Description:
Blueprint: H1 2-9, H2 11-22, H3 28-45, H4 51-88, H5 92-121, H6 127-135, H7 138-162, H8 167-173
Helix pairs in contact: 1-2, 1-4, 2-3, 5-7
Amino acid sequence: MLTRILGKIGLPILVKFVSSSLGSINNDFAKKAVAALSDVDNAISKEQISLEELKEANRHLEKSQELENSLDSSTLKLIHDTMRNELNSQDRFVRFWRPAFGYSVALSWLLCMLTLCYVIVSDNPRAPEIIMALVETTSLWGIALGVLGISVVRTGEVKTSATKGGILNKLVNTNKL
Length: 177
């Protein structure tokens, strides 16, 4: 992510931005970082760091961004290949484990939220503790609901499309799924 930011705005602007952001933090480490970044900014403005060195730094960042993008592309390709293999599998479990996981997560989330509503409506004295405990599970639910949203919604679209003239077979054969 840092390489994307650097590739878009360049090193000098990023140095100023990070320095000003860290300046509002009252911490010794942040103050040391602000001082170091101010020194870098002064060196850039006084041309102690040459334009060629800045271009080289930006070129290096662009190359890093290209490598990161190729890694992202290869990861997405691997995910798509895995999902295609799952859809083409003859094993029923392999084809349906993602939707089954999604529906089980949706059911457990619904039960959890209904329980939370009951705790709040019944004026339970421990409601704040229960709510704070549920806040701690945010990342867990975020991942689980992300899987639900991606797999079940996408599978639902494909199943709906498949009934309209065998579009599923066309997508699989043209590698667009």
